[in-house]
Amino acid sequence: MNATAATNLHPDECLLRPGNTNCGGCGMSIGLTMLGRALAEAGDTCTLVIPACCGIVTAGAFPTTSYAVPTIATTFASSAAVASGVASIRDINNESGQVICWAGDGGTYDIGLGTLSAAAERNENIIYICYDNEIYGNTGGQRSSATPAGARTTTTPWGKSEGKKDIMSIMAAHRIPYAATMSVAHPEDFARKMSIALSMQGMRFLLLHSPCPTGWKSEPQDSVELVRLAVASGLFPVYEVYDGATYRINIEPDGTDPAEYFRRQRRFKDDEIDLDVTRRDCADRMQLLKALAALYPRTA
Amino acid sequence: MSVQVITGNHAAGYALSTAGEANRNARGTACGIYPITPQTEIVEYVAKFPFSKGRVVPVESEHSAMAVSMGASMSGARAFTASSANGLAYMAENIMVTGYYRLPIVMVGVNRTLGPPWNIWADQGDTLMLRDFAWLQFYCENNQEILDTTLLAFRLAEDRRILLPVMTCMDAFIVSHTQMETSLPEQAEVDRYLPDLDLPHRMHQREARTMGGLAWPHEGLSMRLEIDEAMKRVPAVYQECRESFKEVFGRDPGDMTQTFATDDADVVLVVSGTMATTAREVVRKRRAAGEKIGLVKLKMFRPYPEAALREACQSATKLAVLDRNYAAGAGGVFWQDTRAAFQGHRDDLLIQNYLTGLCGGDVTPAVIDDILADIAVREEAGDPVWMGIDTGEETLQ
């Protein structure tokens, strides 16, 4: 039998190695770097389970890899199920190390949703991180059910008429131990949530708002600022749900107007976004979350 | 070893479970399971098996059932599952990648008609549609054979010269739900036959390796070539696995191709699955009446046992290939490969296809007699002939 001693990720070692060919301003790359840092700080490591998405293209071509941890490329709909198998064998062998799915919004909100829902219902002992760039980026920018209303993609050339799916409510409804949203603009919040997730057992779902300059038709240097605007204006609420039962809002919107967020992305045409409707939707969503957090507060 | 009267599904469930249990001193076992008639009893058997070191994961679809087994196998565990018909079609993507990942997963396929029209009865079209997916395939005709072949499948799949998944197949209901006397090996015997799995390319937490990512054409091509080389090694490795099986269990699991009365036969029936049992009986009777008829049962379908088949048909002038499947627009699948096997070797041989027993139809001795009557008067091969269809008048041509 092979030796199975786990080697934790060294603090100086990048999870995403230098030399990868990701786009400038890629939010997913920032997320991977922050994930690596969180693992190193916790003295932990992981196996990455990645379905079809930019995240697996990131690995590069055989025999090299851009990932400093063992990584499995799965079929598009299967990451949560493959991870269930990997985690099962880890657990029955009493081994350490996290099993982390790293999937885009296509593999999470769309084709992999049934698989993810089933893994959540079984409370599999895995961490599932969706880097949500609101588009099928790897295939050149098609709409997903995470694409917001009004966004132009190659398959919604006149703007998407439907709104973004509320994946967090869906996942929270599974009453999994932990569900949280994060933004690459808020590394301290990311680090805190990863630390919580790494200390827990069972299904942990993390949704990371992740800018994609190529798909959003934005400037790479604006990436972090854009998602910061999304949080500040309430377009992307940053909150966490424990056991599907208790809520906490982690970053309160500061009243920033969402107009700037739309203006700086050429996927939105100024004249096609009804800002009044958008402002009202943001306010309604925050009001609902605040009500939930007040009624069912996470106090610990 | 105990002899019990059990169904084919019970036999298959027993083989899968004891094989998984036999890996308890290594990395254990895990599998994803999902029900579909007529294989459900197999996964039910697995679900209640008291594994010492294993986990059975009841998932939401066949696609995920194979995905869980893949994850377990990549982690070095012994993994398996079972499915049928539309379930196999739904699972197909992950069946395909299992072969290309070179994971030694064993799956029992209970051959059921692909719907529509909705139909739960025997037809081999479901597993045969997966024939090009880098899996080995074996077709079994009774309960003992499915048990023995499924155990053998693990040893063959896990052999370092092979490292490919194996599908063992049986006809719906005719085997899956029929009780027969079956010898069940003790766990200690299975332990002896199936050594601890040490998968050379399994994932290790200490190795930063990416499994299944992008490869450029020359590397992708080399990986396909390696599969071709492994496939070519199967016949020899199979014989080794068969010999060890005899030593441990005191029983012959059967050859890849099985001949009956072929030595001086003019006409040879080429059959698979439960059709072999019926056809063998017809051949036995007609041999007694002095007719030079023989039979080849193709137990192994992938890799296609071309050399053994040619060897078995040396004296034949005519082959009747029976297919309990239909590749729309191209006849029967066994027939296509049989024709290819003889091309350039025996261009004088008349090879006629008979499509029979599809969608759960019975292949009775009378159907076999009709086939023999048809081929007896043929001077050349023609289009595939549909047999055993009751049109109210005569057989539909």
Short description:
The complex is a heterodimer of chains A (300) and B (397). Chain A is an alpha/beta fold and 300 residues long.
Number of domains of chain A: 1
Number of domains of chain B: 2
CATH-scheme architecture of the largest domain in chain B: 3-Layer(aba) Sandwich
Low-confidence stretches of chain B: none
CATH architecture descriptor text of chain A:
3-Layer(aba) Sandwich
N-to-C series of helices and strands of chain A: HEHEHEHHEHEHEHHEEHH
List the topology elements.
The complex is a heterodimer of chains A (300) and B (397).
Chain A: H1 27-41, E1 46-50, H2 54-57, E2 71-73, H3 79-92, E3 98-104, H4 105-110, H5 113-121, E4 127-132, H6 167-172, E5 178-183, H7 187-199, E6 204-209, H8 213-216, H9 223-232, E7 238-242, E8 246-251, H10 259-263, H11 275-295
Parallel strand pairs in A: 1-2, 1-3, 3-4, 4-6, 5-6
Antiparallel strand pairs in A: 5-7, 7-8
Helix pairs in contact in A: 1-7, 3-5
Chain B: E1 2-6, H1 8-21, E2 29-33, H2 40-47, E3 54-58, H3 62-74, E4 80-83, H4 85-100, E5 106-111, H5 125-128, E6 136-140, H6 143-158, E7 166-171, E8 180-184, H7 187-193, E9 210-211, H8 217-249, E10 257-260, E11 267-271, H9 275-288, E12 293-298, E13 300-302, H10 306-312, E14 318-323, H11 333-342, E15 350-355, H12 365-376, E16 385-386
Parallel strand pairs in B: 2-3, 4-5, 5-7, 6-7, 11-12, 11-14, 14-15, 15-16
Antiparallel strand pairs in B: 1-8, 6-13, 10-12
Helix pairs in contact in B: 1-2, 1-6, 3-4, 6-8, 7-8, 10-11
List the defining traits of the structure above.
heterodimer; A: 300 residues; alpha/beta; Rossmann fold; 11 helices; B: 397 residues; six-stranded mixed beta sheet; five-stranded mixed beta sheet; 19% strand
Can you describe this structure?
The complex is a heterodimer of chains A (300) and B (397). With 300 residues, chain A is α/β, with parallel strands linked by helices. Chain A has one domain (27-295): Thiamin diphosphate (ThDP)-binding fold, Pyr/PP domains (Rossmann fold). Chain A has eleven helices and eight strands. Chain A has an eight-stranded mixed β-sheet with strand order 2-1-3-4-6-5-7-8, sandwiched between helices. In chain A, helix 7 (187-199) links the parallel strand 5 (178-183) and strand 6 (204-209). In chain A, helix 1 (27-41) crosses helix 7 and helix 3 (79-92) packs parallel to helix 5 (113-121). Chain A is globular, with a radius of gyration of 18 Å. The model of chain A is unreliable at 1-6 (pLDDT under 50). Chain B is of the alpha/beta class. Chain B has two domains: 2-249, Thiamin diphosphate (ThDP)-binding fold, Pyr/PP domains (Rossmann fold); 257-386, Rossmann fold (3-Layer(aba) Sandwich), CATH 3.40.50. Helix content of chain B is 39%, strand content 19%. Chain B has helices at residues 8-21, 40-47, 62-74, 85-100, 125-128, 143-158, 187-193, 217-249, 275-288, 306-312, 333-342, 365-376, and strands spanning 2-6, 29-33, 54-58, 80-83, 106-111, 136-140, 166-171, 180-184, 210-211, 257-260, 267-271, 293-298, 300-302, 318-323, 350-355, 385-386. In chain B, strand 14, helix 11 and strand 15 form a beta-alpha-beta unit. In chain B, helix 6 packs across helix 8, helix 7 crosses helix 8 (217-249) and helix 10 packs across helix 11. The relative contact order of chain B is 0.12.
